[in-house]
Design a protein that fits this description.
Elements lengths: L1 H28 L12 E4 L4 E3 L8 E6 L5 H12 L7 E7 L3 H10 L8 E5 L2 H8 L6 E6 L4 E5 L4 H8 L7
Parallel strand pairs: 3-4, 4-5
Antiparallel strand pairs: 1-2, 1-5, 3-6, 6-7
């Protein structure tokens, strides 16, 4: 009889622990929803300067792309952005990663976005990253309007998709 009570209590505790873990994971997954504006955080640029999102230059729109230099989807998106960079001059891109600055710099150079005026690449500390964005898949894209208010969050977005957020009429390429 006692053995049955101990087993039942153990099962209840295990179910409660699993439920708690799942709820906490869900909170981290949806952490981005509480940031209706661009969160203020610091990052180190590929030029070894510390910058903050609080001092981003004025643009019609902002894209914060969480990426990894080894991510194939990230490489394809960056290649697409490079091809259509002239059409997207009104959008400021902040591409941040927890990877090393040398890997991030190599990625920017390979994608021909290294010296683009409206692109900034940076390293962000993993703890600070999680504080502001929670647990997000790579790539993750946060799209903001000119007032730095969240418009959308997505996993992938090519040039055409991004331009639809910021322009009423699209130009032909």
């Amino acid at each position: 009889m006692r053995r049955g009570i101990v087993i039942a209590a153990s099962i209840v505790l295990m179910v409660a622990a699993i439920a708690f873990i799942l709820v906490e994971f869900q909170k981290k997954q949806h952490n981005y929803e509480k940031y209706k504006t661009i969160p203020v955080f610091s990052f180190e640029t590929i030029f070894n300067k510390i910058k903050s999102t609080s001092s981003l230059p004025k643009h019609e729109g902002y894209v914060i792309l969480i990426f990894s230099p080894g991510c194939e989807a990230c490489q394809m998106e960056a290649s697409d952005y490079s091809k259509h960079i002239e059409s997207m001059q009104n959008i400021f891109f902040l591409m941040v990663s927890t990877d090393s600055l040398s890997k991030i710099g190599d990625f920017a150079l390979k994608q021909q976005l290294y010296n683009a005026d409206n692109f900034q690449f940076g390293h962000v500390d993993a703890n600070e990253f999680e504080t502001h964005f929670g647990s997000v898949p790579i790539p993750s894209i946060f799209i903001y309007n000119s007032e730095k208010e969240l418009i959308s969050k997505t996993r992938v977005a090519n040039s055409l998709t991004l331009l639809k957020y910021f322009k009423n009429e699209l130009t032909d390429w």
